[in-house]
Every structure is written in C-alpha cells, then in structure tokens.
Amino acid sequence: MRALVVLVVVTAIWGVTFVQVKDAVALYPLFAFLALRFAIASCTLAPGLRRVRTLGAGGLGAGALAGSLVGAGYVLQTAGLQRTSVSSTGFITGMYVVLTPLIALALFRARIGVLTWAGIGLATAGLALLSGVHAGSVVGDVLVLAGAAVYSLQIVLMERYAPRYDAIAFTLVEMLAAFGGLAVVAAALGDLRMPHGWTVWGALVVTGVFASALGYLAQTWAQRRATATQTALAFTLEPVWTAFFGFTLAGDRLGAVAWLGCVLIMAGIGIAEPSAAGALARLVRRPRPA
C-alpha cells in the first residue's frame, strides 16, 4: 500500500510539471533547460555517490542506458509540448502504457493477451481523435507519441533492472547519464547560460528535485515492492492529473471530439494495464533471450 501511495503522488507531481515546463521552455532553450533539470536531479542524489560502486559494470551500463532513454524521452516530449496543449501532451504521453507491451513483445517475445490488444486498439482510436485538438498540432502530437515510445522502452528495461540494483545508486547514474548527453547537445548549440526569473527557476527546482530525482527514485523503489499491476494502474493516473492541471492552471478547453478521444485513451489504458503489467512481471522471471 505504501508503494502504491508513493506512485500516485509521483504521478500527480509529473502531471503538474507539464504546465510549468511549457511556460519555462517558452523563455529558455529546451536542451539547456533539460540539462539543468538533470544537473539539479544529480546534485539531489549526490549523497548516494558512494553506493554507485555497488552497481558493478553491469549496473553502471544499465543505469547509463536507462538514463539515456529518460533524456531522449524528455527531449521528444518537451519539444512536442512546445507545439501542442498541456492536456493533449498528458493523454498522448499516457500512451506509453499501451506501447509498453508492444515493446516487450518486440524485445523479449512477451505474450500479449486479448485484453491488451483491445486496449491498444481503443487507445489508438482515441489518439486519432485527440490529434484534431484545436490548440495542438500534428507535429507536436507525433513528437509526444515518440517520447511515449521511448518511455515504454525505459519501463520495460526497469522491470528487469529495478529488482537487481540499489535504487539510489541506479537512479543517480540515470540522472547523470541524462545530464551528460543533454549538456553536450546544449553546449554544442550554444544555449548554456544562466536562466532568469521564477518561471524558469521554479520549473527547474520542481522538475529537477521532485519530478526527476525523487520521482525516478520513488519509481525504482516502488517497482521493487509493488506488484506490476499496482504500478501499472498507478501510472494510469498521470494523464488524468495532467488534464486536471491543464484545465485549472493552463486554461485548456477541449471540444467534444477531443474529450471523446481522451475517454477512449483512458479506456484503452484501463483495459490494457492489468494484462500488460502481468506480461512485464513475467519478464523478470524469464531468462534473457540469447
């Protein structure tokens, strides 16, 4: 129960950051913002630096890979968020739930049940309707969907990595890897400079400390204690929180067709989640394919 509560709180934090990040990247370059976000996250977890040695070479490589995926996912999602609405971004990001079993099928030949396929079909239909939201754009929606696919890959890998390694050490390596890659790109673009104003700094603190460092630490900790189904069901709340904060804080107003798309996406997620989570749980117990 504690793990489930932690995951629900994390999804609420992730939901509110969509509004903050959209405002911040309108004032400060995308790659520089994300690099500073993960620099703050790394500093937050720095007290656990001594524990990194417990990971070994395998853990360091796994953490670096997971961190690279986290960084790439945020680049795609944030680039899409710049071009579309907060609510659209939240619901499309939620598609990682139904994309996850497809990634598991492609990588580890995981079996996918009928309910999962039905959920994927419903969510895809909802995505098609949501793509017509007036405040958004097709390019923005596609970028967010690509980010969701990258998150799905990270979740599949975390199902295998989380039980094996120290949560703090692994999350610190993730954050450092994301920071390193993003900082290189930001420096190459000449975007690294001191940010100004509370809009940017407030978003950096909330996303760096709470959404990234503590959020991913909580995810790693919870996935070692909660069942895969509990974890999956908790994650379905993220697009709901995002829509709530998009409506109350960002002034998002969706039309009837868009809301129907949101309903179909949430229905697809709700139907697919338990079956998909069970498939992921079986991955942990299966040997790696040759």
Report on the structure:
The chain has 290 residues and is an all-alpha fold. The chain has one domain. It contains twelve helices and no strands.
Low-pLDDT ranges: 284-290
* Percent range of helical residues: over 70%
Average pLDDT, to the nearest integer? 81
CA-atom Rg in angstroms: 18 Å
The general outline is globular
End-to-end gap = 37 Å
Short description:
78% of the residues lie in helices and 0% in strands. With 290 residues, the chain is mainly alpha-helical.
Considering the chains and any ligands shown, give keywords for the structure.
290 residues, mainly alpha, globular
List the SSEs and their pairings.
Layout: H1 2-24, H2 30-45, H3 56-81, H4 86-93, H5 96-108, H6 114-130, H7 138-161, H8 167-189, H9 198-222, H10 228-235, H11 237-248, H12 256-285
Helix pairs in contact: 1-9, 1-10, 1-11, 2-8, 2-9, 3-7, 3-8, 4-7, 4-11, 5-7, 5-12, 6-12, 8-9, 10-12
